[in-house]
Amino acid sequence: MHKLKQFLAVIFILISLVMLVGCVAGVVGIWIVKQPMRDRTARALDSAERALNISVDALGQVHSNLAQAREDLKTAKQTVNAPQDMGFFNRIVAQTAVQRLGPNVQKANVAIDNVWMHRS
Question: Is the pTM higher than 0.70?
Answer without folding.
Answer: no
